[in-house]
Protein 1
Amino acid sequence: MPGVDAAHDTYDRLISLLDTSRVDYELIDHEPEGTTDAVCALRGHPASEAAKCIVLRVKVDRRTTRNVLAVVPGDRRVDLDAIRALFAARYVGFSDAETAERLARAIPGTVLPFSFDPELELVADPEVVKQPRLYFNAARLDRSLCLSGSDYERVAKPRVEPIAAPVPG
């Protein structure tokens, strides 16, 4: 399980990547929080501008399982049927916490919309990359990052596919 050191490494790796890629970003310190609605309130923006990051287990067939980091707007949910269709999979479900933490190199509530592990495929909804301001926890519960969706797409290089669905009301 990643501890403070692993989270610190992930944070440092993200900042280094953004700096070397010449990305204009803003760091925002706040009370420790990992739930989307609560951290959006602390940062002072609508949930639609947040990147919600979910690690999924995608069973393509009996022998092939893929790990997918799905990134959707904070006011939406991951459409598991869309992911299933995208990968022509038999089954899609949420990854167990230990696997998610190992692949994302972060604890729940701090998972970045970036993948630093070749076993974790990055898929982002089009609504994420078109945000003028995109917010997410920066591998820490007490610090967030804001950058443009276009810079995010340029640097993270996600597969952009419609994978978000409305949250049931």
Protein 2
Amino acid sequence: MLAFRSVPQLETIMRFSSFTLAAALAVVSVSTSLSGQRPDDQIDARSLQLLAEGRALRAAGNLDGATDVLETAVTVDPRNRAAFVLLGELATQRDLPGKAIRLYREALLLEPNDRSALEGQGEALVKKGAVTRAKENLAKLRTLCKGECSEVTTLAAAIAKGPPVTTAAVESKAAVAKP
């Protein structure tokens, strides 16, 4: 028969102290990281101020300055959906539909039911020739707008118009002729 020997109290403390210490550190680190986070609906005030500055620059016609300020606003707080939407509008205004689609997608990742982002992305999709995907945005907008809304009307008109027709550039005879 095996005889059980009594374990001194100090040995018991040593056996369980490492597990207790690890558990305590895990609890402290989790509680510290959770207390330092902002709620999802609270956007950094600096980002909002940069958004207002970007809107003012766009209204003044300074598209480069507005783009720079809005990109800074998104860097300061990547949850600033309005800055992504405005950047998408600027990209559309500059005839960069691929970039606009990406920026609107970022806004839609933050809020999938953003009507202005759905409309803007749909229009950019039409410019890129992806009319089927634009129609998906239109269907989603129609479910969001129980009645008529301007976003549905604008996107439906863009889809009805269709993608822009592009023509190949004609080279001039001077460039073709060899000396």
Protein 3
Amino acid sequence: MRRSLVATAAVAALALAGCTTGGNSGTSSTPTSGAANPQAVAYMDKVCGAASEFAKIEKTAPKLDAGDSTKLKAEMAAYMGQLADAFAKSAEGLKNVGPSPVAGGEAAVTRMAETFTSLSAVFADAKVKVEQADANNATGGLQAAGEAIAKLSELADPLRDLKDVPELQKATQTAQKCQEMQRLNVTPTS
């Protein structure tokens, strides 16, 4: 039982290492016709730049080594800390993008920042639980790591909060940083 829980947590962590996401919540569709507002595009460049910071931070997923649970525990704790820091950095960046040129934009970006802040707290808590857990008992902290990783479904599309702001949603189609996010496989592609 211990080995299977350790392996499950490690496999989940390894799957996350690529920062891949799935699904399509519709943020990639073009909500209106015509060219995007240049001010909205510039704003979304800032938003996507801040949101994608979590994908750029070095994260070293634990190596699957069922024979050394102490090492796996230490690596999993470090990984949880790296994720907590990465999401906190994105949340801070989102809080500092400035005023939106489009009505509703600031509220949407605030919700995005709150999601990143929440995920940062989840991973920080998981890190503490992993550090406090008995390395020979995977049901403690390592299970908490697996549960934290499962919370990443909240970030399947970090731009989902823009669904109520069609002008900004449209701007994501031409904003350079938003296109980079798609290349990083952080947001769904159309």
